[in-house]
Amino acid sequence: MSTADDELLQMVELRGKLDKIRSQIGSKLANQQQLALILQTIDENLDQQKQEKTPVAYFVSFLSLLDQCCENEEIKDFPLATGAVYFLNLVSPYTSKGLLRPRFSEILTRIAPALTDEKAQAPLIRSSIGFLESLLLAQDLNAWNNVHNYKISPKRGLTGLLELSLDSRPKVRKGAQEAVHNILSQVPAGPMLEHPASYVAGEFALNHLISIVQENQSGKNPSKEVSSKLIHNLQLIASIANGNAWPLKQISPLCDILLEICKSADEFLVSSAFSVFEGLFQSMNSEIDNDRFVRVLDIIFDLKPSINDPHLAPSWLAVVAKAVTCYSHNIDPLQCFLKLPQVFKTVGTFFESEVQNVYISASQCLIAIASDAIDAKLLLLPPVVKESVQEQVETTIASLADITNGFLSIKYRQCAKEVAELISSLFTSLSTRANPYFLQHLETVGEWRSNEQEGFELNDVAERVIASAITSIGPELVLQLLPLNLNNPNAVGRAWLLPILRDSVRCAHLGYYIEEILPLTSYFEGLIAKGNSESINSKIFATIVDQIWSLLPAFCDLPFDLVESFTDELAAHLSELLYQKVELRPTICHALRTLVESNVVYSSGDVVNAIINQQFPVEKSKEAIEYISSSKSTKLLSVLFNVFAETPMDQRNYILETIDAYLQISSPEDVSATFNKVCTLLKKALDEEKEDDHHKTEDPAMNGKIPRLSITMMDLVVEMTKYIPESSHTALLAIFNQTIRVQDVQIQKRSYRVLLRLMETEDGLKSVKNFLPDILKVLSDASQVTLQAAKSARLLTLVGVVKSLSVDYLHFIPNILSEVILGTKSVNEKARETSYGILIAMGHKLIENEGSPVKNSLNDSDMPDSEASLKELFVMCSAGLAGGSPHMISASVTALSRIFYEFHDEMPVDFLKEMASTVELFLTSRNREIIKSALGFLKVSSLMLPEDEVRPGLKGLLASLLAVNHEQKSHFRSKIKHLIERMVRRFGMNDIEQCIPEEDKKLIVNIRKTKARAKRKKAESAVETDTIPKAGEEVNKKFTSGYDEALYGDTDSEFEEEGADEEESYGTSKRTRQYISESRDIPLDLLDKRSLAHISSSRPRKFNRKTSDYATKDGKLVFNEVDDSDPLGGKNSIDAYVEAVDQGPVRGQNNKLKYKKKQRTGDGIDWKDEPEDKSKKSSHSRPNYRRAAGGRVGKPRSRFKAGKKL
């Protein structure tokens, strides 16, 4: 890009920033308004002088304005100076460097008062820092070296920034440190590799750091204040180091003092010191910095502390880990790898420490190095790497093996666990190159685990080492060293290896499992057949058989020998087992699916592993997929289809996933042939099945039965839809046309899913558009025959259909609009959300085709045609307001509120105001369903419309709202109060208070006190260290969409519900708590399905007894056999009966037991001036049951009903 283009882009960028400031001329914030006024004044001045508004013109103008604020190097007008410097900071990056370089001294003199004046506020100083940064970045090498011996040089300006980078004000300090980093990281053009001012910055920061450390040691100032100064100074050093500007000569003293600081017990101080080290390491990232990095490493290793130093040793080890890792990533991976034996020897000496924290830190240090500092590309074999490099790598691995093998001796017994974790990490990092050097390690660790000592502390870590070895060098080598010996009673048995193999085998040889491991199942099945099936041994043998079969999916995860091992005999054997042994179906299906999916993922290039890529090239994976597709896929699909048809609906998802995997790799011809067979069976099943009543309503998933053949075939059609070739789409659409009218919920649901799945593919969407007229006619005709339970599936399909409509078929939108509007009031939440989505899709479609004709006459010959527009959608939805039923009117208002929220920016304000006024009239309705929807609409409109448009009608709106509250006997009081709170936040308390009638002023008083109470609680909770929320408080309330947040969300954290003061009975209605009832003797097994019986939403009660209740004799506790004290004695019998009835189970749908939800007594809104005293709130602790005629107990009188959400 040319220089002229760069200047043009900069001008556009600057104009955008200035235009944004100009638009704030009417802002309520004084600082924004003042900036806009200053800019307006400068613009008028430039217009009067007929100057072009260039960056240079603005720069000169604002610099002159700054001069007017100063007198005798003192600022007289701070607000105006703050604005002037703000604009100088904004304009200076776009100003020509030819202006800033020669006039550096003059400009710095003018800006100096803003940096040095003690009365200057943080905003002025921050803007001055940004301006000075731009000024220093514009200087060249000669200016930095001060070849002309000016009294005021750039280094002097940098010194001022360094002083400010230690300022006590956080924002000032951070801005100065960022400026120092940006300046030093951009070296001026010239022969120097370092910035000419780096030594000045380094010397300043290091001297300050040393003085603060000495001050801390002398104890002159409080330690907390000194710690803050140290952290600020370390942040400055980190800023310099991150810019690769720390001088080489000052590295040694810096490392020395940093390690001294690491002895501190202050974790923030130690963290800051580590950030400096990290900045030093990460800033060096090229071969030029190799010598510097090696020098840093040598200095760090020379500062090695004592192995028993519990303070300095862990910090030093952490620095070593970071240094070595950065050396590998940024400088030279090979040289770093060759130095690892020396590093392991040095760090390994800390394993001899008697301090636990030290040898744990040593282990973590070496694990971090092994995990992050070994480049996998170095472990590849020729010809990818040179033979000389391979020999060096082999020698290094052998050295590492010898060193770590020594760590397994009895000398390091106290840290055996940490050493084992290190070996596990080395197995993982070295992968196949760990063979044969680390086999002795594996044998030693295997002996630890094979001892079978119960409770042996190294069993877990030994298993982790073995698992890493299995993954890295393969199960064959591991089982050679540690054989299973399951059929050899004279050898040590290792059945415990089976679960480890199951979780660790990857990229192995399937043939090894088929030949060596799987035959063991026949051996144990023979033992089971000979013995008693109920004996313990038989159960153990059955468990071993299950564990052996569980290895099959692991060995099918990207096997290297798939073509050779997955033979017809194996496929036939697995197919036979699928038919015969139901318990093996999940395992075999998982294996078959993994066999395909692992190869598909690997062949796509998503697996980035250099070693595996060399062992098993991607081309072999593609050959394996082709082998399965051509020779096995069709037969396996037939078997899976048959097994799928024989399996209950709630137990066959895994079979469907396996079918999907094989359909994915099958050829189009095979898929088409299979589809034709399924179509034939489906037609035959539909013809044979009788239309019994139970067919229409039964749900096979609920009763665990095998579904009818027609449902099974429809499931297969749905699954195949994505893979069916385009030539078969006609037949697929014919199935959709026939099945959508079948009066069976299960068939209708699957019929709509067929069309939905078809539209998800590119070819399928193309076919849908080709047959769109017929599809639209079928959908229109099916609206009357679609069963209620299938409505949700229909609405989901309509979303895709609306999005695919072309300009010629926009008449389908008004055809289905009434159905979609009614869907917004569905009891099914998913159907409601889908209906909202259809409305939004309709709006976008009409905007996309705005002005196009909508042929309404195709729907109804009496209806005139119209033009597509977003306004037309509002008009069509508004037609429902004249509906004959309250339900339709309420649904129309709800639909209008949703599209109002979504498209309010696209519509004229006058039209939206008219719409809001129309809906406001429905507040006078006597129907609560309509009023509820109208309140939701008005909440959205009052928030979305411009403030100036809403304010004139506030008085009338508030009067209508309060009239509703009175006329409906406070049924909507919580909703109305919440809406008024939102208005208070937007329009201010004073404006709202003026619009509320005198008799309702107490509402404003209540809102004000609620707000004040919420602020007090927030302040109190900030002091408390306990972060557990109290009952009734809502934590992190989230919504699924911005519309829901606008409709139901709180105005602010300050406007919390007043019910937060009430007791737990109200709080739990918002967030149900669960309690577990557990026996002291028998722990609760959460894997047991019966454990649900021990989980309740009622808090378990304790029966506490006083110590005096127990008789004592001779200092011993004596428990009476007959308990005289009845823990329920103090409870009224009627109350106990009522509580039992209230909390007891009732028979619900399908004759199932369910527990009644505890009703809330009220909506938690108190309209009184002051909250009631807690002692008087007995109604919250026990329902207010009343006595009915005849002495019977009646239902409690609720104060008012709880309103449901929209």
TrEMBL record:
Pfam families the UniProt entry points to: HEAT_RRP12_N, RRP12_HEAT
Compositionally skewed regions (Basic residues) per UniProt: 1194-1206
Record carries keyword Protease: no
Keyword vocabulary terms for this entry: Nucleus
Gene Ontology CC terms, in alphabetical order: nucleus
Name used for this protein in its record: DEKNAAC103240
Domain of life the protein comes from: Eukaryota
Record organism: Brettanomyces naardenensis
Compartment annotation: Nucleus
Domain RRP12 N-terminal HEAT: 27-240
Secretion signal span: none
Region entry Disordered, spans: 1050-1074, 1141-1206
PANTHER family per the UniProt record, alphabetical: ARM REPEAT SUPERFAMILY PROTEIN
